[in-house]
Design goal:
0% strand
Length: 329
């Protein structure tokens, strides 16, 4: 194992524990370890650690893995270093689903348009866009054209959301805006039982595709010459990305920049484009950064909790500018 992997694994363990310890109240490390190992009888610590901070930290890891892996696949598929999991419009589709639920059913009780209601609406919106993208991928053989179509789907969904926002009442608008901030604390153990296996399935698909994706880096014609079905590879890549990006967006809201930036950090650390290395490296990088962003968003002394989406943007936006500068436009 390369030393870089060892360093990332150690950082992951440290940030995972730090994310549980730090918050509006700093918990002693001893009490955290006792709660995690079932050696405490304190009901308050048990509730805070096991039913709030632990699922939140696991959600951060799952989200970091999902967005980072989908970012790797999109950058490979489109041969574009600035492609991310949202380029196919799946994230916008999830946002449209939540907007339709929030703004279109304002007369429903609050509990029906939050929690599972938002998750189901986001999943339906993401699946709807996914189906359109799959149809487009069959009809449109050019990868660049498919990228444009995906972006147009996203723009169309975003336009509908903007129109609905402009005519909504302040209460429902606030509810939707809060969802767009992104949150890792809304996932409970019941929702984790759905989120974890779906994301694990998407990651498993990505690892099954790592060999053909390596060949695809050399170009469509080269891949076809080696007997790889480019159309099938593209379809499976889109499906895996949609599972990962759609599921993470459904449960945590839209979280930007992680999918775009983490593959570049992994490539910079390991000096390779080999997916056998970049996929697990991106997962580790994404998990560590998501945990760090969660820690920053809830540092003691802050009035309330900062939106995770804002913290990831503060980290990711300068890095994207650096990538463009490095590539000289």
């Amino acid at each position: 194992m390369k030393k870089e992997f060892i360093i990332l694994i150690v950082l992951l363990c440290l940030t995972f524990v730090a994310d549980i310890i730090l918050g509006s109240v700093i918990l002693p490390l001893k009490d955290v370890l006792h709660a995690l190992t079932g050696q405490t009888d304190d009901a308050i610590y048990h509730e805070i650690i096991l039913n709030h901070r632990l699922p939140k930290a696991i959600t951060a890891i799952l989200t970091g893995c999902a967005l980072s892996v989908s970012g790797v696949m999109m950058q490979t598929l489109f041969h574009n270093p600035l492609a991310g999991p949202d380029v196919l419009g799946v994230t916008s589709g999830a946002s449209l689903g939540v907007a339709l639920l929030t703004f279109g059913t304002a007369t429903l009780p609050l509990w029906m348009i939050t929690g599972w209601g938002q998750v189901i609406a986001a999943i339906l919106g993401a699946v709807g866009v996914l189906l359109l993208i799959i149809v487009a991928s069959v009809k449109i053989p050019q990868t660049v054209s498919l990228l444009i179509v995906g972006m147009m789907f996203g723009q169309f969904a975003a336009a509908i959301v903007s129109i609905m926002q402009s005519v909504s009442n302040p209460d429902t608008l606030k509810l939707f805006i809060t969802w767009t901030f992104g949150s890792l604390s809304a996932v409970n153990w019941e929702q984790m039982s759905i989120m974890f296996p779906v994301i694990a399935g998407g990651i498993f698909m990505a690892f099954l595709l790592q060999k053909p994706l390596n060949v695809f880096l050399l170009g469509n014609n080269y891949a076809s010459g080696l007997g790889i079905s480019v159309a099938r590879l593209r379809l499976l890549t889109i499906l895996a990305t949609a599972l990962l990006a759609g599921t993470s967006t459904a449960f945590t809201g839209p979280i930007a920049f992680i999918g775009i930036t983490m593959p570049h950090i992994a490539r910079g650390l390991f000096r390779t484009a080999n997916h056998k290395i970049i996929l697990p490296a991106s997962m580790l990088c994404g998990s560590v950064v998501m945990l760090l962003c969660d820690i920053i968003s809830q540092l003691p002394g802050l009035q309330g909790t900062l939106p995770v989406n804002a913290v990831t943007a503060l980290f990711g936006a300068p890095l994207i500018v650096w990538i463009i500068w490095k590539n000289k436009g």
